[in-house]
Amino acid sequence: MTTRAFHARDRAVLRISGRDARPFLQGLVTNDVARLDQGALYAALLTPQGKYLFDFFLVPEGGDVLVEVAAGRAAALAQRLGLYRLRAAVAIEATALGVVLGQGAAPEGAFADPRDARLGWRAILADPEALLAGLDRLEPADYARRRIELAVPETGAELVAEDSYILEMGFERLNGVDFRKGCYVGQEVTARMKHKSELKKGLVAVGVTGEAPPPGTEVLAGERPAGRLLSVAGDRGLAHLRFDRASGRLTAGAAEITRIEASG
């Protein structure tokens, strides 16, 4: 496979440093920060009520932790982390580092996407353009289609701050939550959803036949509301649906929607 990549200018990188950096994050985020010794992690920061606020990649760099997050949410994440800092020996700083997303053979220093290795690799670099100079271009639209085929949610598209629940968005399948690590913000609600109830709604990969409607269009099972279509790339989409209404004929606007299994 040819190695292709692009500079993800919609991503930003924070640096968490100081002797308490990892213990500080461990008490806040959904994944087990102790596993950073094995490589990069995907995780989220929730509200105390268990709703999604931010999702990000945690990447070890010596004693520091790099936090790769949607650029439009980076300042808000830094501010939220600062509220929890209290007396911890931690510094939270923005950086000028860039992010490259690629598919094919991973260059030195890159890491496989911890959500699903089939998405490709990610690299955090001081000079992204230097890496890209030797690679073919990966079109962001092609990357987005692959993300949708694999039912991987994205900040602001499927993942909505103070609204989404991470288990409904597939975080367990995407290695974004650890149920053995102990307490973190929103842990009680997340654990209850895991152990004491069966999910009735969730993120579903769908086929889209006909003219795709705008994101957020209601999905109907006959005349009954079944959820919403959130993203579309060609004839594939992601919808948040009620599982008891996600089979049979579904429509969104003028398009016909069919539930499918995430692509291999």
Structure commentary:
The chain is of the alpha+beta class. It has five helices and 16 strands. It has helices at 21-26, 71-85, 128-132, 140-149, 187-195; strands at residues 4-7, 11-17, 41-46, 52-61, 64-70, 91-94, 98-103, 111-112, 121-125, 136-137, 201-209, 217-221, 224-233, 236-242, 250-252, 255-259. Strands 12-13-14-11-16-15 form a six-stranded antiparallel β-sheet. Strands 8-9-7-1-10 form a five-stranded mixed β-sheet. Strand 15 (250-252) and strand 16 form a beta hairpin. The longest helix is centred in the N-terminal third of the chain and has 15 residues, at 71-85. The radius of gyration is 19 Å and the shape is globular. The protein starts with a strand and ends in a 5-residue tail after the last strand. 39% of the residues are buried. The mean pLDDT is 95.
Question: What features would you highlight for this structure?
Answer:
264 residues, alpha+beta, 6-stranded antiparallel β-sheet, 35% strand, single chain, 5-stranded mixed β-sheet
Low-confidence stretches: none
End-to-end CA span: 16 Å
Give me the side-by-side strand order of the main sheet. 12-13-14-11-16-15
* Strand runs, count: 16
* Residues in helices, as a percent range: 10-25%
Residue share in β-strands: 25-35%
Largest sheet: 6 strands, antiparallel
Q: Briefly note the structural class of the backbone.
A: alpha+beta
Mean of all residue-level pLDDT scores: 95
Coarse morphology: globular
Number of helices: 5
How are helices and strands ordered from N to C?
EEHEEEHEEEEHEHHEEEEEE
Radius of gyration: 19 Å
